[in-house]
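Model it.
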Amino acid sequence: MFQKQSHIIPARVSDITRSAEAAARAIPPSFPLEATVAVNPFLGQLSESLAMASARMMRVAGVRITRSPEDYVLSMHQGEITDTDLAEALEASTDLQKPAGVAELKEAVSAHGDDVTGPLPTIADLAAASTGIDWPSVIEKTVGLWAAGHFDKGQALWSPAPGLDVFAAWRAWAVHDLTPEIAGLAGFCAHVSNAPDTAERAILRASEAIGLTEAAADTAFHRLYMDLGGWSQHARWQLWQAELDGRSDTALTGLLAIRLIWEEALLAHVPGIAEDWAEAVSAHAAPIEPSAGQVALAILQEAADRAHQRKLAHALDGGTGSAGSKTETDRPFLQAAFCIDVRSEVFRRALEAVDPSIETIGFAGFFGLPISHKAKGSDVAEAHLPVLLNASVETTSHCDAANEHEVRIAARTSRAWGRFRQAAVSSFAFIEAAGPLYAAKLVRDALGMPAKPPKPDPAPQVVGGLSAEAKTDTAQAVLKAMSMTEGHGDYVLLLGHGGHTTNNPHESAYHCGACGGYTGEVSARVLAALLNDPETRAGLSARGITVPYATRFIAGLHDTTTDQVTLYPDGLGAAHDATLGKIEAWLDRAGRAARTERSLKLPGSTPDTVSARAFNWAEVRPEWGLAGCAAFIAAPRAATAGKDLGGRAFLHSYDWRADEGFATLELILTAPVVVASWISLQYYGSTVAPDVFGGGNKLIHNVVGGIGVVEGNGGGLRPGLPLQAVHDGEKPVHEPLRLSVMIEAPREAIGDVLDRHPEVRALFDNGWLHLFALKDGKIEARYRPGLSWCVGSDQAIDV
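Modeled.
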């Protein structure tokens, strides 16, 4: 019944293999729930413009990756997007198909803007239309059921074919799974059994059998990967992790082989669709070119970005910041270093307004420490650093030997009890027998009453310690990167952040992205201990960085859901208790002000009820996370102090005059800016294309394997942000804009960094990010593709 393997010439083998690799690289990674971080869903399209990527995504996923034409038209009618914005966006566009003027642009949007054609069909789609059997759904559920067990990270009690690679494990399962045959695909088990023994050979045989040409393979394979949804992205994450460690991984190749075997079988089963499939192959082989509507919508997105940039430029140009009243010789009593996270912008403004002796600083929340941490009672190594980097410092919060033994026994008991509760033979009996014992907990949780907070873990320690030179090297690098080599306050708070939520599988998405989806407590405590160490201080002084003897560094954790700050005065001593009380009172006042501001945006919330959302197990919107993020500003605090940026800007402290050789500038552009772009574009993708890049509806989520979620009993893993993270039930709360990066530094220095890092330059050259140079806190120039700038009267912003 099924076609037999044909002779494949070596040149074709090379082309097909190369196409499979290219398609795999077009898929973004999706990180597991335990340490979720935002990922740019267009990571594989950074070499293309928005219009070109729109054409690609329409072909392989059937989605528009801009806002709808109606949304842009409404913004124009409401005056948010002006004709000036449209004219400047048209001028900036390099697309040869662009309309001649603003009137023609508006006409093009009306005539062609909504030409959503859907993806090119797979063989499964064509077979479904021919037979009336929903083969795509059958594939999603059967592959999803197997994948949930194979990729499981400890949630399931049993996993099929453990230890085998993806393709071998699936074959071992599929030869016994009768679901396809019951659905009508007779002989499928035998077909799988007769398949080649490796994924690579299976891909080559299936490609030959279905007549896939080399020219068509790139987007045809990409289409199949998109069809597998979150499972492809999880496999891409496995490859990402492997390559960070200098290894490789075959999971993505295995998934493509699985999907192609289904295509091969269905084409043989429904030969009447061969002509339609040949047309699809021909369409895949055609060059990708954006339509007139896609070009017009990309230009309107540029206009929307520029409309926001006008408002941002006005905010930066208006008023005087709180730092404006200080002289260069003023030494603050309290400095508070926050993560650059946009949620910190609200709290920083509130804290600086409490007392003029307070100064705030912005820096990536891992504080420059590449930490791999083992928490109390655990041997799991948590990577508390950006996912772009590898850990090089091992830390632990293990107790002393006796107490650690007790903690581990308690943890094992808890895990055993949990498995007993979930086991098939005991789960129902457990509810009958033990349910009443949980009455108090059920009542407390139902009323949203916070449980007694657990004691903090012991202060983290560096495994094996650090030499005096290593301490000094680390401290010097961090202080230089933070632009904190002088002018230290009497007390310096190092505030990591995390968000407490109840009954929320995406909790780690509210934590610190710079800490790999964990809270920033560990990084802050390690750095505070390092900077308080007399040996470190002596080493810094010898290198010309003198931290006053009286200055004390204190770690803390900013809970972004409740806007409460917990301090960890490790080793500080009772002599500082009175001052700590004063600082905590300041933080409480700032927290109340921040909650008041945030309550205006949270549905059904008041300043007094914002914190309660963290403890409500039915709350689908505990906070808005980073929704609304639209700008990244690296400049001295004086440029933004006292200016209301609406909780929409990443704020990184940076003084280029103290940046010898512009090493810190290079670090900012290649790490924090890239991480911020991932966050911004994930929110963008989850808003404009939620069916493909969004996490679906929280109300019907089921956690799968500790990896991610599915909706209801579906088999498709849902990557990205849940609907409730970007939507209030009536309208989107995230305005999908591409991030505007603003850096106060010489344009030549910025250009030199981009020239050395083509992968970062591509973000700006192809329009995925905007770049501006600041001077004295004001926009001086706009970056243009090709390492050029628009300055003065040619600047595309009317300030």
